[in-house]
Amino acid sequence: MKSKFGLYTAISIVIANMIGTGIFTSLGFQVLELRTGFALLFLWLLGGISALIGAMAYAELGTAMPRSGGEYHFLSRIYHPALGFISGWISFIVGFAAPTAAAATALSAYLTVAVGISRTGGNLDARLLISITVILLLTMLHARYKRAGASFQNIMTSLKILVLILFILAGFLSSVDQTMDFTPNRAALKEIISPAFAIAIFFVSFAYSGWNAAAYIIGEMDKPGRNIPISLILGTLLVTLLYMGITYVFLKIIPLGTMAGRIEIGYLFGQQVLGVNAGRVMGLLFSLLLFSTVSSLIITGPRVTQVMGEDYPGIRWFSHTSTQDTPARAIYIQAGIAIVYVITSTFEQMITYIGFTLNLMTLLAVLGMILYRERNKSSRDDIYRIRPYPLLPVIFLVINTWIMIYGLIYRPFESFAGIITAAMGFLLWLWLKHKSQQQVAS
After folding, report:
1. Is 395 exposed, middle or buried (0-12, 13-18, 19+ CB in 10 A)?
2. Is the preceding peptide bond at 390 cis, omega within 30 degrees of 0?
3. Domain ranges for the chain
4. What is the per-residue pLDDT across 314-367, written as a single tens digit (0 to 9) for each?
5. Which helix (H) or strand (E) holds 372?
6. Which of 14, 82, 374, 382 is in the most buried spot, having the most CB atoms within 10 Å?
7. According to CATH, what is the number of the domain 7-441?
8. Is residue 257 a contact partner of residue 250, using CB atoms and an 8 Å limit?
9. Which residues contact 29 (CB under 8 A, 6 or more apart)?
10. Residues pairing with 125 in the sheet
11. Phi/psi class of residue 322: alpha, beta or left (left: φ > 0; alpha: ψ in -120 to 50)?
12. How would you class 401 by CB atoms within 10 Å of its CB: exposed for 0-12, middle for 13-18, buried for 19 or more?
């Protein structure tokens, strides 16, 4: 009998996919140009609203079309198999491998700062070595042991939530205060309508990415009709509340000049609240918590590749499952791509590249939800319905279209790289279709 992911594991995967690299690292890039507390908090609130609406839309899609694969499955059914394949290709090349690399990179950044090392073995970068080792260890865990991997995920995610709550409480109770102004003054409103705010959304969008994680494992979820909406919506809502709290205490405690351009914000927070030595302990703790982020991405991403392999004979090799009921081959391939990203990309490039391509696919999926509902006037009571409709989906579409337009204008290199990636996926789909037709003809 195949093992299923329960509700708690599904919620853990959503939370762990979301709480990771972004919230622990991206604030340092945001404060380079945004300097008011209200604009920065509103930035994270806007990201949370968008993610929550997206989670509700995916809950409707997932209960109406219950199969693993996320956008790959949804877009194939709603639009055309070619668009679904492009989405799956983006997930394969970018959507999970790049965030895995970013999370492993952030983990190593926290760990090396906490331990106090920068280089090891001549010219070999310690951060690079740690990042690759973490990816390989967790890849072997999830490729070989499904139940043990799920248990590890649940434990690490629970620990992550507990630690974040303690950090928020410590920040509120701390006597350290940088007198950041959080009122909606003129300077804050000016920042909100600035190009810098729109670009900062890229980092926030990356931090919230993962709100759709449960949609990738629907086929392996216990009681999906009940557990899909609960895991997506509850997980996203909880993360939004935690993000608002942790952003507030980071801004309250850490001087803007200190965090500007820095990745290891959690380490800086620990330094300010409890001193240098405690800061090192917190940096070590943050690095350990990022294990759950890398772990959850390794669980979810290969499920998309596995489903694609089931549908296309030319890549059937990816659909193979091990004796432990895991898509081991797809897991190993994703790990290899993630390691390439670790070696070749900068942290900021990975975030912007991820932001544009993933926003494009989620935007099409939420638009597809509207189209699917209008085409299928079903009265099935087992389908979750997003309400108020169509107001909430339209808000999501407006926010994400705005992000993509500014991305094309102010981050053209990374944005066009995303478009080129999609074009490569279409070419691969044409080749696979041609190969399949040749096999049928012969």
Report:
1. middle
2. yes
3. 7-441
4. 888 888 888 888 899 999 999 999 999 888 876 566 666 666 777 888 999 999
5. helix 347-375
6. 14
7. 1.20.1740.10
8. no
9. 200, 203, 261, 348
10. 119
11. beta
12. middle
User: How many other CB atoms are found less than 10 A from the CB of residue 241?
Assistant: 13
3-state secondary structure at position 221: strand
Cα separations (Å) of 362 from 31, 198, 244?
A: 27, 18, 23
Instruction: Give, in order, the Cα–Cα distances in Å from 232 to each of 26, 86, 227, 426.
Output: 23, 24, 8, 29
CB 53 within 8 A of CB 395: yes
Integer-rounded Cα Rg, in Å, for the chain is 21
Q: What is the pLDDT of residues 400-423, one digit of tens each?
A: 888 788 777 777 777 787 788 889
First to last CA, the chain: 37
User: Is-contact 127 105, C-beta < 8 A?
Assistant: yes
* pTM, to two decimals: 0.87
CB atoms within 10 A of CB 78: 20
CA distances for 386 relative to 56, 229, 396, angstroms: 6, 10, 12
Which residues are 5's β-sheet partners?
Answer: 221
List, in sequence order, every residue forming a beta bridge with 221; answer none if it has no partner.
Answer: 5
Rounded distance, CA 214 to CA 233, Å?
Answer: 10
